[in-house]
Amino acid sequence: MPAVTADTLTLPRLPDLPETTTDWRPVRKVVAARKSYEGEGFQVRRPFPGVDLPSADPFLLLDHMGAVEYGPGEAKGAPWHPHRGFETVTYMIDGAFEHLDSTGGGGLIKDGATQWMTAGSGVLHSELPPPDMVAKGGLFHGVQLWVNLPRAAKWTPPRYQDIKAHDIRLLASDDGGALVRVIAGDLAGHRGPGTTHTPITYLHATAAPGARLAFPWPADFNAMVYVLSGKGFVGHERRPLEEGELAVLGNGEALTLRAATEWDVLVLGGLPLDEPVARYGPFVMNTRQEILDAIEDFQAGRLGGTHVPHVGPADEELEK
């Protein structure tokens, strides 16, 4: 771990933000992920939603899957289920997930790849480990993020973005001690391949012990840091943060982090939608009636019957 690596000395570097910067975002809250079970019974760690952090607008859910070494016959997934009204972003660091959808399409997500599924008006899909992983076992580690869709995009036709590992934008910290993978959004003028309906930035960084990672951050975005592995410090006040913990940051225009050990973190933030949220299991809409309609459509077989295009991140038909 991690699957996507590079020599940081050969990569573009983030700007050098001096320690005297006055607009660092402070740590407002630290949340410990809670263990939960999904699909056929595979364990995830979920920092939100929960009692300590019920809302992270525009994000709905973050599930940390693994890292776990499965034995033969132990790997499990999530069989066929519906979605409507939001986007699922599945990022596989190690191992693989096989996706199938209600139109017969699908794809394999593995080794640093991301699949960005916009459920929109509705789709049925399954996410399962491939047969060879079920038979032989192996290392499995990934993350699934749910991103809410604004009211105006709830009924957009479903679509997929298949983001391969080599598509991800790679950067180095100003001191060269951290590798940053930009999956979506803009970081100091460097844009990731993911195309979003909701303005967000989504990063995965690996920092060597003692490395400093600092970068500008949009003032109107919220900001969170989740630790995949290792230990480090967040904020100018150096708040300790370790595996399975999420830091929610306050207002400001820059973030600063420093690794204590080798440290793998997700950094994510977005522009809050500030819209009503009605949610029930795999449906996220704006009103209770829209949830009831989604359940009725699913039970009547009307959900997920449209064509779902599979596209790459550079496809011109995707709108920013």
From TrEMBL:
Residues 202-303 form the Pirin C-terminal domain. GO terms for molecular function: metal ion binding. Its cofactor is Fe cation. Coiled coil: none annotated. Pfam families: Pirin (PF02678), Pirin_C (PF05726). Residues 42-147 form the Pirin N-terminal domain. Fe cation binds at H81, H83, H125, E127. Binds 1 Fe cation per subunit. InterPro entries: Pirin, Pirin_C_dom, Pirin_N_dom, RmlC-like_jellyroll, RmlC_Cupin_sf. Belongs to the pirin family. This is Pirin domain-containing protein. The lineage of its organism: Bacteria, Bacillati, Actinomycetota, Actinomycetes, Pseudonocardiales.
